[in-house]
TrEMBL record:
Pathway membership, UniProt: Metabolic intermediate biosynthesis; chorismate biosynthesis; chorismate from D-erythrose 4-phosphate and phosphoenolpyruvate: step 4/7
Catalysed reaction, written as an equation: shikimate + NADP(+) = 3-dehydroshikimate + NADPH + H(+)
Family: Belongs to the shikimate dehydrogenase family.
Quaternary structure annotation from Swiss-Prot or TrEMBL: Homodimer.
Protein name: Shikimate dehydrogenase (NADP(+))
InterPro entries, per the entry: Aminoacid_DH-like_N_sf (IPR046346), NAD(P)-bd_dom_sf (IPR036291), SDH_C (IPR041121), Shikimate_DH (IPR011342), Shikimate_DH-bd_N (IPR013708), Shikimate_DH_fam (IPR022893), Shikm_DH/Glu-tRNA_Rdtase (IPR006151)
Function in brief: Involved in the biosynthesis of the chorismate, which leads to the biosynthesis of aromatic amino acids. Catalyzes the reversible NADPH linked reduction of 3-dehydroshikimate (DHSA) to yield shikimate (SA).
Keyword Transmembrane annotated: no
Domain SDH C-terminal: 242-272
A GO BP entry: shikimate metabolic process
Origin organism lineage: Bacteria, Pseudomonadati, Pseudomonadota, Gammaproteobacteria, Pseudomonadales
GO molecular function, one term: NADP binding
Domain Shikimate dehydrogenase substrate binding N-terminal: 8-90
Length: 277
């Protein structure tokens, strides 16, 4: 009997850790599946997806630059994908392509369970107003922080994003600011930009970092990301990167597909060792 086929699709894709992550999940849970990486042509995403499912594929993870295209291609969306406007998980249900987004669930799981970061009643600052931030806002708001401020280089983008999520803010005060005008005390600061991968930093005041401020970069690196190093250099003690989020969002997708929740801690530890080497 052939194993069920899954894959991650993106461009480029050779750097992806998803095949290793899902291979470890499959070994751990005893699920019979094969997971590969597919580099789709920049102008050939839809054809690649169609061909994958036509040959019996069961599910796809989607990474840059195709998350919006995956959302647009789907015939049905989960509630969290609908709000995110992007999809990182695809599967078929009775011939209908279904889009889901597990990024926000992965971030929240990593913060709450792997790092014991309290979000309920917390004052949260999130940096960036692109797709990565849009994908995690609804799950963050579900945790009922006291305040969630979206900061961006272009204030109008942050304002638009805050307006888009006002209907799900609930008890949370949801606001927006330009980077250089952010002031106040925050319990959690999340970097949702990719700036630190290029060695850049948002122009933030170091006074935002208090003795107990949790710093979280949604990106990850072999050592500290540029953002996390800046935070450490300015007194932050609790500093985390997004490797746990990567594994947790993958576990969420695995459960959507297979109905089984894998244990993430050993996989995070394995990847941390691999990344460090």
């Amino acid at each position: 009997m052939k194993n069920d086929l899954y894959a991650v699709i993106g461009h480029p894709i050779s750097h992806s850790k998803s095949p290793r992550i899902h291979g470890l999940f499959a070994s751990q849970t005893g699920e019979a599946l094969e997971y590969t990486a597919i580099q789709a042509p920049l102008n050939g995403f839809e054809n690649t997806v169609t061909e994958f499912f036509a040959r019996g594929g069961k599910g796809l993870n989607v990474t840059v630059p195709f998350k919006e295209a995956a959302w647009q291609m789907a015939g049905r969306h989960s509630a969290r994908a609908l709000k995110a406007g992007a999809a990182n998980t695809l599967y078929q249900d009775n011939g209908v392509l279904v889009a889901d987004n597990t990024d926000g669930a992965g971030l929240v799981k990593d913060l709450l369970h792997n790092h014991q970061v309290a979000l309920k009643g917390a004052r949260v600052l999130i940096l960036g107003a692109g797709g990565a931030v849009r994908g995690v806002l609804a799950p963050l708001l579900l945790e009922q922080p006291h305040t969630l401020v979206i900061a961006n280089r272009t204030p109008a983008k942050a304002q638009n994003l805050a307006a888009l999520f006002a209907d799900v803010a609930g008890v949370t005060w949801l606001g927006s600011q330009a980077y250089d005008s952010v002031t106040g005390d925050f319990d959690v600061i999340i970097n949702g930009t990719s700036a630190s991968l290029q060695g850049d930093l948002p122009p933030l005041s170091v006074e935002l970092i208090g003795a107990d401020t949790v710093i979280y970069d949604m990106m990850y690196a072999a050592t500290n990301t540029t953002f996390n190093q800046w935070a450490r250099d300015n007194g932050a003690k609790r500093v985390y990167d997004g490797l746990g989020m990567l594994v947790e969002q993958a576990a969420e997708a695995f459960e959507v597909w297979r109905g089984v929740r894998p244990q993430t801690a050993p996989v995070i530890a394995s990847l941390r060792t691999l990344t460090a080497n």
